[in-house]
TrEMBL record, chain A:
Keyword Transmembrane helix among UniProt keywords: yes
Protein name: Uncharacterized protein
Species this protein is from: Nocardioides furvisabuli
Transmembrane regions: 12-35, 56-76, 82-102, 114-135, 147-168
Keyword set, alphabetical order: Membrane, Transmembrane, Transmembrane helix
Domain of life the protein comes from: Bacteria
UniProtKB/TrEMBL annotation, chain B:
Chain segments annotated as transmembrane: 20-43
UniProt KW Transmembrane keyword: yes
One Pfam family it belongs to: DUF58
Record keyword Membrane present: yes
Start and end residues of each DUF58 domain: 194-353
Keywords linked to the UniProt accession: Membrane, Transmembrane, Transmembrane helix
Protein name: DUF58 domain-containing protein
InterPro entries: DUF58
Lineage: superkingdom: Bacteria
Length: 172, 424
C-alpha cells in the first residue's frame, strides 16, 4: 500500500481526486489574481488552509470562510477591473465543485449527467454578474432615486429572514 | 424520522449572497455586489426548491436465497419523488459480500432512475446485506433528506454446487427402484448373462440368435436396478484456514460444505435417497429423502452451519442407517472421538468412506514459528488418525472434486459382492 493510498479516503475515484485538487486551488487562484500585489500573509495562510480543509470535506464551513475571505480582500481593495469578473467565476466554480462533491461520500463516482446539469446552472448563475459589474462601473450611486434603496433594503430583509430560517436547525 | 434540511451548499450560497449584498449596500463595497450576484441566483433557486412532502424510503432485494457467487440487486423504493432531484445510497461493507459499485456508493439523478446496488455473496452461510444509508437532495441542491439508515436484509447463501460426477456404483443399493445395478437379478437393463429358458420366463427375454445357434431356447438375464441410501456426515466442529470465499482460498469447512453439497446434488440427481447429519455445536439431521425439494432442504441446512470453539465431537454417529447404506464422512478428522465414531459405524456394517477435507495448506515460510510448529504437530496427529482408520478397512480419500469417490466405491462394491463368513 503506497503512502497515497493511506492518506486518501478509501474508494476515492480519480475524477473525485481531480475535483478536490481543483477545489483546493480555485480560492487560492482567485486570491493569486491580485499579484503582483501580495495579500497579507495571514489572509493567504487562512485562504490556503480553509481551501485545503474544504477540499477534504466539501460540506465543511471552511469553504464559506475561504470564499468570504477572498471576496472580502477584493472588496476592501476596491478593485473593479476585469479581474473581479474572473474572481467571481472562480468563486462560483469552487462553490459548484464543492456542491457536486457533496452529493455523496468520497467513494461516490462523479456522475457526468449531474456535472452537466450543474455546468448549465453555473452558466445561468453567471448571467447577473456582468450586469452587476457594468452597473457598478457605469452608474453613480449618488444619482440613484431614493426608492431604489428602499427596494434593496426590503430584498435584503427578506434574504436575512430566509437565511436565518435555514441556519436554525429544525427539531426532528 | 428525518426532515428536509438545508444543504451546506445552500447555507454557503445564502451567506455569500446576503453578505455580499449587505456589504455592497450598507458598507458601500461595490465589488461585493458583483461577487455575490451569482450566489443570489443559486440561493434563491435552492430555497424555492424545498419539497413539500416527507418521503417514505425503503429498500428491497430481488432474492433472499442464492448460491455462492450469484448476485442480487438491491432496489430503492421511494413513495413520493416530487421535488427530489438526486438520490444517494451508501451500503456498508459486509464480510464475504462483494458489491457493485465496489465501495457500495451509488448515486444518480432521479430522472435517470433510482440508483441500484448489486450484492454478490462470496461465501455460503447466513449473510446480512443492504445495511445502507440513503440520502435525497432537492433541486438546485437546496435541501437534503437524510442520510437515513436502512435495515439490512437476511440472505441465505447456499454452498456452490461444485462440479461433481461419479460413474461408480453405490456398493449396496437397498431401495426399490433407482439407477444402481442391484446384486439381485431382475427386470433391469444391465446385462447379467444368458441361460436356458425356464418356465415363467418372459418371451421377450428370449435371445433368438443364441437359441437358433444352439437349438435350444435361451433367455437374457438382467440385473434389477435399485436406489441407495446415502448418508452425508458433515464435520462442522472446527474451521481451519482462512476462507477467501468462492474466489480465494478455501478453509476446511468451505471444502467440507461444498463437497457435501456436490455429493448431495449428485446422488439426488441419480435418484438416491440422501440424508445429512451435521456434527457441530448446533447439530442437525435431515432424514433420508429424495427429490429437488429435499436437495434444497439439505443445502439450507448446510448453509446454516457455524463453528464454535466450545463444540465437542460426539462419541457415536446416530444415523439409524441400515446395513445397505453408504456413509460419506466429510471431515478433516481433527478429533479422535469423531474417528472412533466413524470406526464404530464401519463395524456396524455400513459402507463408510471418509472424505478428507483438509485440502492444501501453506505450511508457512518460518518452520520454527509457533504457528508452523503447531500446524505440523496437528498434521502428524491427523495422519496417525487417518492411518488407524484405513487399517480398520475404512477408506480415506482426499476431496478432489469429480471422480473423487470412483475408485473407492468400486472397491467397496467388489468387497460387498464377496461372500462373507460370519461367526455365530
Amino acid at each position: 500500500m503506497s503512502v497515497l493510498d493511506r492518506v486518501l479516503p478509501p474508494g476515492l475515484t480519480s475524477g473525485g481526486l481531480v475535483l478536490r485538487v481543483v477545489l483546493a486551488l480555485l480560492p487560492c487562484a482567485a486570491l493569486a489574481l491580485a499579484l503582483p500585489e501580495v495579500p497579507h500573509l495571514v489572509v493567504t495562510t487562512m485562504v490556503v488552509a480553509c481551501s485545503v480543509r474544504w477540499a477534504v470535506t466539501p460540506d465543511h464551513p471552511a469553504g464559506a470562510a475561504a470564499l468570504m475571505l477572498v471576496a472580502a480582500w477584493w472588496a476592501v481593495h476596491d478593485v473593479v477591473d476585469w479581474r473581479v469578473l474572473v474572481v467571481a467565476v472562480l468563486l462560483l466554480a469552487a462553490h459548484l465543485v464543492a456542491t457536486l462533491l457533496a452529493h455523496g461520500p468520497a467513494a461516490l463516482p462523479v456522475d457526468p449527467r449531474l456535472a452537466g446539469l450543474w455546468l448549465r446552472r453555473a452558466l445561468l448563475a453567471l448571467v447577473p454578474m456582468p450586469v452587476a459589474w457594468l452597473a457598478v462601473r457605469g452608474l453613480d450611486a449618488e444619482l440613484a432615486p431614493s426608492w431604489l434603496w428602499i427596494v434593496v433594503a426590503l430584498v435584503l430583509g427578506v434574504l436575512l429572514v430566509l437565511t436565518s430560517r435555514i441556519l436554525v436547525p429544525e427539531a426532528e | 424520522m428525518s426532515t428536509w434540511r438545508p444543504t451546506p451548499s445552500l447555507v454557503r450560497a445564502s451567506l455569500l449572497a446576503l453578505g455580499g449584498l449587505a456589504g455592497g449596500v450598507v458598507g458601500g463595497l461595490d465589488v461585493l455586489v458583483v461577487l455575490a450576484a451569482p450566489f443570489v441566483i443559486l440561493a434563491g433557486m435552492g430555497l424555492a426548491g424545498r419539497p413539500r412532502h416527507l418521503p417514505t424510503v425503503s429498500t428491497r432485494i430481488d432474492h433472499h436465497r442464492l448460491h455462492e457467487g450469484q448476485g442480487t440487486t438491491s432496489r430503492l423504493v421511494v413513495d413520493d419523488l416530487a421535488g427530489v432531484e438526486h438520490a444517494t445510497r451508501v451500503a456498508g461493507p459486509a464480510p464475504h459480500v462483494a458489491t457493485r459499485p465496489t465501495y457500495g456508493a451509488a448515486g444518480s439523478l432521479v430522472d435517470a432512475g433510482l440508483p441500484l446496488i448489486e450484492f454478490s455473496p462470496r461465501r455460503w452461510g447466513r449473510r446480512a446485506i443492504g445495511a445502507e444509508r440513503v440520502g435525497l437532495t432537492s433541486a438546485w441542491a437546496g435541501w437534503q433528506w437524510g442520510p437515513v439508515d436502512m435495515p439490512e436484509h437476511g440472505l441465505s447463501v447456499l454452498p456452490q454446487t461444485a462440479p461433481y460426477d461419479s460413474r461408480a456404483e453405490v456398493p449396496q443399493p437397498d431401495g426399490l427402484v433407482g439407477r444402481h445395478r442391484s446384486r439381485r437379478i431382475g427386470s433391469g437393463t444391465e446385462f447379467e448373462g444368458i441361460r436356458h429358458f425356464a418356465s415363467g420366463d418372459r418371451l421377450r427375454r428370449i435371445t433368438w440368435p443364441v437359441s437358433l445357434r444352439t437349438g435350444e431356447l435361451h433367455v437374457v438375464t438382467t440385473r434389477a436396478e435399485q436406489d441407495a441410501g446415502v448418508w452425508l456426515v458433515v464435520d462442522g466442529l472446527r474451521d481451519i484456514g482462512r476462507s477467501g470465499g468462492i474466489d480465494g482460498a478455501a478453509s476446511t469447512l468451505d471444502l467440507t460444505v461444498r463437497a457435501a453439497a456436490a455429493l448431495a446434488e449428485h446422488h439426488v440427481r441419480t435418484g438416491d435417497r440422501v440424508g445429512l447429519l451435521v456434527v457441530a455445536a448446533d447439530p442437525s439431521r435431515v432424514p433420508l429423502g429424495s427429490g429437488p425439494r429435499h436437495l434444497q432442504r439439505i443445502h439450507a441446512v448446510l448453509a446454516r452451519i457455524r463453528t464454535e470453539g466450545r463444540s465437542v465431537a460426539p462419541e457415536r454417529l446416530d444415523l439409524g442407517a441400515g446395513a445397505g447404506s453408504v456413509v460419506h464422512v466429510l471431515s478433516p478428522m481433527l478429533f479422535t472421538p469423531l474417528v472412533t465414531a466413524t470406526a464404530s459405524l464401519q463395524r456396524s456394517g455400513a459402507s463408510v468412506v471418509v472424505i478428507d477435507t483438509w485440502g492444501e495448506r501453506d505450511p508457512g515460510t518460518d518452520r520454527l514459528a509457533w504457528a508452523s510448529l503447531a500446524a505440523r504437530m496437528q498434521k502428524i496427529e491427523r495422519d496417525d488418525r487417518l492411518d488407524r482408520l484405513a487399517a480398520l478397512g475404512c477408506p480415506v480419500v482426499p476431496w478432489r472434486g469429480p471422480g473423487t469417490l470412483d475408485t473407492v466405491l468400486q472397491q467397496l462394491a467388489r468387497r460387498a459382492r464377496v461372500p462373507k463368513v460370519r461367526a455365530r
